[in-house]
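We modelled the chain as a single entity of 119 amino acids. Its sequence is:
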Amino acid sequence: MPVVIVKEEQTLISVSHSDGSFITEPDMERIFSIINRHKINNNVMQRSALSLSFCVDYHRVHLPSLIEDLKRLFRVKYNTGLRLITIRHYDMETIKKMTAGKDILLHQQSRTNAYFVVR
């Protein structure tokens, strides 16, 4: 039986290098150190060779300073006012129902869980 968890007021942040170079493990260490310093929780993340995207709870005080600190080292894009949908023990019917009519900005699936950051 699928279980759906919805978190409102999410922000999706994508970090990359302005020259298009790879995001390395030392880069990820720097990024997570900055996130930790600003006391912001990471709810889901996705890494590719060129970028790291992560979804965090919106925090009107900590989020702007987090973004400014990240911008000192990386190119940063972000979207606020989003929703994180987690479906445990997903099936296609539940996925279709929960994402119908929504703009999916990030999608991730494992064997038992599906995550969607939607607008």
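As a brief sanity check on the tokenised model: The mean pLDDT is 97. Helices lie at 25-37, 62-71, 92-99.
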